[in-house]
């Protein structure tokens, strides 16, 4: 078939070594590239065909290795790794920077009144709920009822947390109140992500051996995956929600900002966006996408099953989600 391009390139794995932070960072800079959001449905479909055909053992004539890898990353940015379904646009990791810079910028700008806090925390947690569901691990579907309960629980918990922190901030210096949105987001992530992925905690996520042979489902693996995602999400928020408030606190004392207060929101959004361009991929890279744990850390019943069906397996692998 194709004498031009080797069929032995492993596009099931990222192009760069995922055993190193730099390798993971390069991978996630590609996956979270905001320009991927602008790709047309035709471009996404073309990438899907190239990837699936190559995995099936064929490549179109003239396809180069760079074009193959580009198609793989376009595919990864828009299609779920476990189900293969096309993800909703705002839930894709490539939408994180443009969506979060807008929402976070507004949260940091409009934080002084209770209605503003409630509204923007609700918007933020609704967006997070979409992202958390879209980037869940595993291939088992959630019912509409499960999804509804998870969404209401996650957003309500997050908004209540934000209001509680805002009431505490009234006794603190003005600069401290600027950090209320960050504290609320950090706390809310600890609520939102487990709620939106509660099915995984109850029934487990698929675990495989090193050759991708499915061995079963593990709630313990789900706990590790969700914990890693929570840490990464909080890490993403740190630069975007901690650095701009300090800069804005200084800028608002300047004469030109007092003369043109309308610049407050766009400047804040721009600063947040600059932070997120780097924080999003770098924090996604804190842990490998294909995470692992020892068989001894799994449930006793699953350990027994693995000992019988795959006695040489000592480590299992799973998609941690994003």
Automatic annotation (TrEMBL):
<keyword id="KW-0812">Transmembrane</keyword>
<feature type="transmembrane region" description="Helical">
    <location>
        <begin position="149"/>
        <end position="169"/>
    </location>
</feature>
<dbReference type="Pfam" id="PF03820">
    <property type="entry name" value="SFXNs"/>
</dbReference>
<keyword id="KW-0813">Transport</keyword>
<protein>
    <recommendedName>
        <fullName>Sidoreflexin</fullName>
    </recommendedName>
</protein>
<comment type="function">
    <text>Mitochondrial serine transporter that mediates transport of serine into mitochondria, an important step of the one-carbon metabolism pathway. Mitochondrial serine is converted to glycine and formate, which then exits to the cytosol where it is used to generate the charged folates that serve as one-carbon donors.</text>
</comment>
<feature type="transmembrane region" description="Helical">
    <location>
        <begin position="225"/>
        <end position="247"/>
    </location>
</feature>
<feature type="transmembrane region" description="Helical">
    <location>
        <begin position="175"/>
        <end position="195"/>
    </location>
</feature>
<keyword id="KW-1133">Transmembrane helix</keyword>
<dbReference type="InterPro" id="IPR004686">
    <property type="entry name" value="Mtc"/>
</dbReference>
<feature type="transmembrane region" description="Helical">
    <location>
        <begin position="267"/>
        <end position="287"/>
    </location>
</feature>
<keyword id="KW-0496">Mitochondrion</keyword>
<dbReference type="GO" id="GO:0015075">
    <property type="term" value="F:monoatomic ion transmembrane transporter activity"/>
</dbReference>
<dbReference type="GO" id="GO:0005743">
    <property type="term" value="C:mitochondrial inner membrane"/>
</dbReference>
<comment type="similarity">
    <text>Belongs to the sideroflexin family.</text>
</comment>
<keyword id="KW-0029">Amino-acid transport</keyword>
<dbReference type="GO" id="GO:0140300">
    <property type="term" value="P:serine import into mitochondrion"/>
</dbReference>
<keyword id="KW-0472">Membrane</keyword>
